[in-house]
User: What shape does this take?
Amino acid sequence: MHPSFWDSRYANEPGYVFGTEPNEFLRDVADRIRPGGRVLCVAEGEGRNAVFLAERGFHVTAIDQSVVGLEKAKHLATARGVEGQITMIVADLLGHDLGEGNWDAIVWIFLHLNPPERRRLLERASRALTPEGLLVLECYTPRQVRWKTGGPIQAPELLVELTDLQGACPELETVIGLERERDVIEGTGHTGRADVVQWLARRATASPARA
Assistant: This one.
C-alpha cells in the first residue's frame, strides 16, 4: 500500500495499532539468533519487534515506508532506553539495497506482497543473510479470509503458504515450517483467531572455495 495509507493509519488510530509487544513467533525464536548479531526488521511499522530485539542486545535496523510509523518507533525505543541500538530508515523496501551477507537475521512479520514482489524480496533477503543467518517470518495464509481478524483479506492474492516461501528460497534450510491456527492479539490491528504460516529458515554455511 502507498505510504500515505500507513501514515494516516498510524497517526489517526489510538495508541500503537499493532501494540508495543513483540510478535509471538519472533519472541519464541529470538534466542536462536546469534547473540549480539545484526538484525534487519522489514516493514517494521511502529517498532515493537525492533525494540524487543534491541532490549535483548541485538544491533537492529528497522525499515519502513511510513515516516509516522518510524517516529512512533523512535518514541517507543526512547521510552525503553534502546534508542542507541536501533537504526531507522524510511525507504521503499522493494527498492532498498539489503546488501549481501549483511544480516544475522531478517525479521519479516505480517508483510504481505503480491507474488512476484514477494518472491523477489525473499530472494534478496536470502542473499542478504550471513552464513547460518536466519529468516524469521510470519504471515497470514489464504485460510485467513474466514476469520476477518487481520491481514489483507480483501486481496487474497497477498496471502501466502509455506510452499510458496520455500519455493522462492530453495537455498534456505527450513528449521521451523508450520501452517497453523492460533490467536493473534496484537493491538487493534490483529484481534483474534487466525490462520498463519510461521517460517524459520537458515542460510547454509558458505561452501569452502575450491582449489
User: Anything to note?
Assistant: The helical segments are 3-12, 24-29, 48-55, 67-80, 115-128, 162-168. Strands lie at 38-42, 59-64, 86-90, 103-109, 129-140, 172-186, 190-203. The CA atoms of residues 1 and 129 lie 26 Å apart. The longest helix spans residues 67-80.
